[in-house]
Every structure is written in structure tokens, then in C-alpha cells.
């Protein structure tokens, strides 16, 4: 009897330990189910599924709800995955060779709106339909990266930045927006690198509201008004640095444009090593009502624009500064370099000005070194 009692005790002890371990496993599984660092979407998915690799969801919105902050949503195959509003840090990743589309027939395609969040979008295609507004809209966040995406045919802006933060657009094409291709109206740091901004109804890239912009190795072409514009209409400074860009065929407006209107406003553009051609004007600075516009133009080819290559205007108390160095300014019918009285015009280095038919190359002959 004693041995039997001891055996029973050992068996009961083992049963208790097993039950405790089973409870821990169940608890761990419950914790893991609510903490998913990586979710998946697919054309064959279902939004009632757990968004796992074997049971993916169908729409981005469903996957986002189950994704940990700082996690990622991975697209498994080609399909449309629906508009989404993102309020936490996340990456949406589309592997090479897969088409992941968002058709926008109302509102915006992707909205980023969360304090301090970091969002990355890679490989998406966002198509505007009748009724669709903006492709990617950044309202609030710390950082947004748009990499290798296509934003096509939006009824508003292709990419719109309304809040402070850092926005990086790289290897991305924005085409056919009814308004601006990329529009920034915020104290934001915005970089556009190795991208194409084309065929917008308004400006290709327009920045204002205290933005600090960089445009590098990018084509900006065939837009309805300005190619790249820095405009400041309230107290503050908007600056854009442009390097190794092609700004062409913006034939209803200026290729590169700086405008400042009002006291304590500054719009500044520095453009280097770029081609500016076949626009209405090549580079244009405009100031009014105590505003200051400043353009620095170094090492560029500014050729065959419809009117002036580089021109400036100052009215009613504005202040305009033009610095031009080592530029080739050819075949602009109105003028190569035109800076009227009241403009601070400096040439730290020689510009080669040739065959500008208007004959007004800031007082120089038609084939001149300035």
C-alpha cells in the first residue's frame, strides 16, 4: 500500500507539472497571436484569416490591424489590395515581379497619420480613378519612405505632404496628376531622388510652408506649369537644392522657379549640374511686397527655353538675388541672362552665353563670357 501511495503521488505530480507546462504553452500562443511582426496579403486571402503566410489576408487594412508597430506587411502575389490609412509604424513590401495595386476611386490611396511613426512603402502601384484624390498623403509622422512605387493619374496630387517630418521619395514615378505631382506645404524635409515626375496638370514639384527640399538625379518633365517651384507666402523660408536633374518641356511655365511674397519670407533655390531645357523660361526668381527670392545657378546647361534662360523680377519692395557661375546658356530667344535694376546679380565664375536671339544677355553681346 505504501508503494502504491508513493506511485500515485508521483503520477499526480507529473500530471500537475504537465498541466502547468501546457498552460504556459497556451498562454505563450495567445501572446504570440496578438503580436505579429510580419503579416501577409494575397489574391486568395481572406480578411477573417490570421494574415499568416499560410492563411493570408486579402486587404492591406485587415493585415495592418494585426501587424505589430514596427512590423511589415508582405504581398505574396499580384492583385489589388485596397486603400489604407496608416496610424502606426509599418512597412508595406512588394517583392520584385509582383504587382500590388491600389485603385483610388474616392478619397486618397494611402494616408499616413500617426504621431512619431515611421512608414515605408516599397513597390506599390497607386492608380487614380474618377473621384480619387491624392495618391499618398502624409498628414503626420516622423518619416515616410516611398521606394520604387508608381503613382498614376490622381485627381489631386500624386504625393502630398501636409505635416512636419522627413519624406524620402526614391526610384518612384509620379505621372498624370491633375494638380501637382509632389506637393509640400509644411516644415518638412523632403528628398526626391532618382525619380520621374511627369505630366502633372499643375507643377511637377512644388514646395512651400517652410519646407527644405532636395531633388537629385530626377526627371521633371511635361508638367502644366512649373517644373520645380519653391514658394513662400507667409513668414518663413522654403529652400530647394537641385543637383544632376533634367527639367524639361514644362512649356507653360518656368523650369525652376522661386517666388517670395510678403515680409520675412524667403524662397531659395540652388541648382547645380543640371539640364534645363524647352520650358517657357529656364530659371526664374520673383519677389514682391518685402519678400526675398534667391537663386544660385552653378554648372548647368540652360538651353532652348521659349523665353529667357535665367531671369528675375522684383516689384513693390521685394528683393531678388541671382548668382550665376559656370553655366552654358544657349539659344533662349528672349535673353540668356536677364536681371533688371534692383536685382543683386553676381557672377562668381564665368558663364558662357551664346545665340540668345533677343540680344539682351545682361548687356553683353550674343556670344559672350559673363
Biggest sheet character: 13 strands, parallel
Structural class, from helix and strand content? mainly beta
- Approximately how much helix is present in the residues? 10-25%
Unreliable spans are 1-33
Share in β-strands = over 45%
What is the count of structural domains? Answer: 2
Q: Give the termini separation.
A: 114 Å
Helix run count: 2
Name the strands of the widest sheet in spatial order.
1-2-5-8-11-14-17-20-23-26-29-32-35
Explained architecture:
- The chain is mostly beta strands and 370 residues long.
- The protein has two domains: 1-34; 88-369.
- Helices cover 11% and strands 48% of the residues.
- It has two helices and 37 strands.
- The strands form three sheets. A 13-stranded parallel β-sheet has the order 1-2-5-8-11-14-17-20-23-26-29-32-35.
- Helix 2 (60-66) links the parallel strand 1 and strand 2.
- The model is unreliable at 1-33 (pLDDT under 50).
Please specify the SSE layout and strand pairing.
Blueprint: H1 2-33, E1 36-41, H2 60-66, E2 67-75, E3 79-80, E4 84-86, E5 90-93, E6 100-104, E7 110-113, E8 118-122, E9 124-128, E10 136-140, E11 143-147, E12 150-152, E13 159-161, E14 165-170, E15 173-175, E16 182-185, E17 188-193, E18 196-198, E19 205-208, E20 212-216, E21 219-221, E22 228-232, E23 236-243, E24 246-248, E25 254-261, E26 265-272, E27 275-277, E28 281-288, E29 292-298, E30 301-303, E31 308-315, E32 319-325, E33 328-330, E34 335-338, E35 343-346, E36 352-354, E37 367-369
Amino acid at each position: 500500500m505504501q508503494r502504491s501511495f508513493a506511485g500515485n503521488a508521483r503520477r499526480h505530480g507529473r500530471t500537475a507539472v504537465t498541466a502547468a507546462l501546457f498552460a504556459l504553452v497556451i498562454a505563450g500562443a495567445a501572446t504570440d497571436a496578438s503580436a505579429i511582426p510580419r503579416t501577409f496579403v494575397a489574391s486568395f486571402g481572406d480578411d477573417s484569416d490570421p494574415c499568416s503566410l499560410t492563411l493570408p489576408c486579402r486587404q492591406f487594412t485587415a493585415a495592418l490591424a494585426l501587424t505589430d508597430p514596427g512590423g511589415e506587411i508582405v504581398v505574396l502575389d499580384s492583385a489589388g489590395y485596397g486603400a489604407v490609412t496608416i496610424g502606426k509604424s509599418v512597412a508595406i513590401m512588394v517583392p520584385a515581379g509582383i504587382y500590388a495595386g491600389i485603385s483610388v476611386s474616392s478619397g486618397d490611396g494611402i494616408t499616413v497619420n500617426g504621431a512619431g511613426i515611421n512608414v515605408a512603402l516599397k513597390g506599390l502601384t497607386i492608380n487614380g480613378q474618377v473621384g480619387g484624390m491624392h495618391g499618398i498623403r502624409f498628414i503626420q509622422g516622423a518619416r515616410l519612405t516611398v521606394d520604387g512605387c508608381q503613382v498614376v493619374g490622381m485627381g489631386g496630387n500624386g504625393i502630398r505632404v501636409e505635416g512636419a517630418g522627413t519624406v524620402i521619395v526614391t526610384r518612384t514615378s509620379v505621372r498624370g496628376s491633375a494638380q501637382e505631382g509632389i506637393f509640400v506645404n509644411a516644415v518638412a524635409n523632403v528628398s526626391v531622388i532618382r525619380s520621374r515626375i511627369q505630366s502633372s496638370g499643375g507643377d511637377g514639384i512644388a514646395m512651400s510652408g517652410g519646407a527644405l527640399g532636395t531633388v537629385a538625379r530626377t526627371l521633371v518633365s511635361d508638367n502644366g506649369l512649373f517644373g520645380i517651384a519653391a514658394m513662400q507666402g507667409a513668414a518663413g523660408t522654403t529652400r530647394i537644392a537641385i543637383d544632376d536633374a533634367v527639367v524639361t518641356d514644362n512649356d507653360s511655365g518656368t523650369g525652376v522657379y522661386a517666388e517670395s511674397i510678403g515680409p520675412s519670407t524667403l524662397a531659395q533655390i540652388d541648382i547645380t549640374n543640371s539640364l534645363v531645357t524647352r520650358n517657357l523660361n529656364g530659371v526664374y526668381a520673383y519677389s514682391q511686397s518685402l519678400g526675398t527670392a534667391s537663386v544660385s545657378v552653378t554648372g548647368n546647361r540652360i538651353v532652348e527655353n521659349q523665353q529667357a534662360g535665367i531671369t528675375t523680377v522684383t516689384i513693390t519692395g521685394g528683393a531678388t538675388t541671382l548668382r550665376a557661375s559656370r553655366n552654358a546658356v544657349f539659344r533662349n530667344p528672349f535673353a540668356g541672362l536677364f536681371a533688371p535694376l534692383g536685382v543683386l546679380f553676381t557672377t562668381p565664375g564665368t558663364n558662357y552665353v551664346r545665340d540668345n536671339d533677343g540680344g539682351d544677355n545682361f548687356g553683353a553681346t550674343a556670344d559672350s563670357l559673363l
